Amino acid sequence: MAFYTVMIPPPGSGGARDEIEQARLLPETFTWPAFIFGGLWLLGKRLWLATLVYVLLWGALFYAGSQFGLTRGALLISHWTIAIFLGLEGQNLVARKLARQGWRLADVVEARDLPEAERRYFERALAGEAMPSRLSALPPSRPQPAGPVPIIGLFPEARGR
Q1: How many C-beta atoms surround the C-beta of residue 109 within 10 A?
Q2: Residues 6+ apart with CB under 8 A from 88
Q3: For 53, which DSSP code?
Q4: Fewer Cβ atoms within 10 Å of its own Cβ: the N or the C terminal residue of the chain?
Q5: Is the pLDDT of residue 74 over 50?
Q6: pLDDT of residue 69
Q7: Each residue of 64-96: b (16+ CB within 10 Å) or e?
Q8: DSSP 3-state of 109
């Protein structure tokens, strides 16, 4: 089973039901298109800053290859390293872009595939379980006891070191 991060649009883009309907589910899995296509995938997702970094990194690698005599093997290892990084972190780059645009984390759903994840999220959200207003309306955490709290483990008290 895979995990899906659910992002909802910024406040003011409609009512709560509209926010639920506009939710984007991002899988927390390896991103094969990012691994295979690299810079084209970044452009397709409109990750402009990441694309600029990608192009500058490749420019630096080719410059180092021509000036310092890097072998083809070193360039190949660099290519695979960048591709693996994009494959592993591609969805996180998209989630961070959405967060910069004001989108909020609404839920994390575990499901076999995207349709099942959407169904689970919509069921919970429409029932009122995964609403972000509930997250912000949580009561403040309990005050900590003044004295040392005995715990089991390596440290004799919760805040001690």
Answers
A1: 24
A2: 30, 31
A3: H
A4: C
A5: yes
A6: 86
A7: eeeeeebeeeeeeebeeebeeebbebbbebbbe
A8: strand
φ, ψ of residue 132 in degrees (nearest 5): -65, -25
- The span from the CA of 126 to the CA of 50, in Å, is 35
The tokens for 102 are: 């004001």
Torsional class of 11: left (φ above 0), alpha (ψ -120 to 50), beta (otherwise): beta
State pTM to two decimals: 0.73
- Which of 56, 54, 22, 61 is closest to 37 using CA atoms? 54
Q: Residues 123, 99, 79, CA angle at the centre, nearest 5°?
A: 110
pLDDT of 137? 47
Give the start-to-end residue ranges of the domains of the chain: 2-136
State the pLDDT confidence band at 109, using cuts at 50, 70 and 90. Answer: very high
149 vs 52, residue with greater confidence? 52
User: Token pair of 8, please?
Assistant: 């909802």
Q: Are 115 and 87 in contact (CB under 8 A)?
A: no
Sign of the Cα torsion 52, 38, 43, 49 reads negative
